[in-house]
Amino acid sequence: MASAARNDQSTVKPVPVPPLNLAAGFAAIRDEALAELTAVAESGYYVLGPKVSAFEEALARYCGVQHALGVSSGTDALLAALMALGIGAGDEVIVPTFTFFATAGCVARLGARPVFCDIEPRTFNIDVARVDRLITPRTKAVMPVHLYGQLAEMKPLLELAERHDLAVIEDAAQAIGSKAHGVGGGMAGSFGTCGCLSFYPTKNLGALGDAGALLTNDDQLIDTARQIRIHGSGHTYYHRVIGGNFRIDALQAALLTIKLKHLEEWTEQRRARAARYTELLQAAGLTPDPLQPPYEGNSRHVYHQYVLRASRRDELAAYLKERSIGCGVYYPLCLHQQECFGHLGYQPGAFPHGEAAAAQVLALPIYPELTELQQQAVVDAIVAFYARSV
Ligand SMILES: *Cc1c(COP(=O)(O)O)cnc(C)c1O
């Protein structure tokens, strides 16, 4: 490796690369945000209300759907969606085994059974070709997850769901703004029966706390979800269905409305940084072995995470962390291997692609504020790791 020499530990000044830089994201909107926060504080309207409605309208327009409903988190968006669809005990919901816990956790919390599916190894998304054989008379829905910011294969999945009369709940928590290529390409969260977004601070559109949203084109579903958001109450203190407290704060909605205006610009900055990583890694001779860069398939990848497959992943991650380079493993264990799902009876080896991903994936720091110098430092450290250890 040609550049190994200049990575000699004694000559390189360390450039710290934090895993995230959320405060910098706030700095970009500080003045506007402080004015809005003051306005909300002085309005006395702190939960739901006009700021929330305004955000919901802007969000629905951006995502290309009829309705958006602001809720308390991405998890609660998934939960409210499942509840609005009447999913509960005795039902089955097909979910990828390689995803954040919430996707399957919400299914199980309602007494339904998560039925796991392996992933497609290039995109890490649910392998739609394997969904068919998991469908039983009890299957009510399938939940594709647009992992790391890239759309799952929606067209064949929607066709399959239609044939079997299944609801499609998109977990778009990581994928706001991801868009199918081609004419009329839809946005993440706009394809299925409904879509769920998270505005957890680390997500591409992040609040100053927890928040989420449910997207749909279905008038009846949005009415039900709207009631579920406030304990199933249509008229105050009269309850048609059982819901929860899934309300969103006005402060978060006001802030998200401001941030939404910047999202396209921030997404392009993420994409530019992803492209630069791939170029630098290629130039260093690290791809496709020992590192496989992300594959960009059928959609505009919004790079919530820039995820490599890495040989000797755990050693590399430890090496980078020692050098103040934030990196992460999303996720180290598939859901069918989680202790809490042991009763479902899945054996190790049940989903080889998911299990291989869990052993190999490594996410490098990616955010709009990441500098060229920092990216070079990340790649230099990776070069040094593999040069040192061959
Ligand atoms: C973040 C996330 C969620 C949950 O969102 P919260 O706002 O943290 O509750 C669900 N699914 C996926 C894939 C996520 O990344």
Plain-language structure description:
The chain starts with 21 loop residues before the first helix and ends with a helix. The longest helix has 21 residues, at 263-283. Helix 3 (50-63) packs parallel to helix 8 (250-260). It has 2 domains: 2-23 and 263-387, Aspartate Aminotransferase, domain 1, CATH 3.90.1150; 27-260, Type I PLP-dependent aspartate aminotransferase-like (Major domain) (Aspartate Aminotransferase, domain 2, 3-Layer(aba) Sandwich), CATH 3.40.640.10. It has 12 helices and 12 strands. By secondary structure, it is an alpha/beta fold. The radius of gyration is 22 Å and the shape is globular. It has helices at residues 22-27, 30-43, 50-63, 74-84, 102-109, 154-164, 219-229, 250-260, 263-283, 313-322, 352-360, 372-388; strands at 67-71, 92-96, 113-117, 139-142, 167-171, 179-180, 194-198, 212-216, 291-292, 299-300, 306-310, 361-364. Helix 5 (102-109) links the parallel strand 2 (92-96) and strand 3. It has a 7-stranded mixed β-sheet, with helices on both faces. Helix content is 37%, strand content 13%. It binds pyridoxal-5'-phosphate.
Spell out the blueprint of helices and strands:
Layout: H1 22-27, H2 30-43, H3 50-63, E1 67-71, H4 74-84, E2 92-96, H5 102-109, E3 113-117, E4 139-142, H6 154-164, E5 167-171, E6 179-180, E7 194-198, E8 212-216, H7 219-229, H8 250-260, H9 263-283, E9 291-292, E10 299-300, E11 306-310, H10 313-322, H11 352-360, E12 361-364, H12 372-388
Parallel strand pairs: 2-3, 2-4, 4-5, 5-7
Antiparallel strand pairs: 1-8, 6-10, 7-8, 9-11, 11-12
Pyridoxal-5'-phosphate binds at residues 73-75, 99-100, 102-103, 145, 171, 173-174, 198, 200, 210, 212.
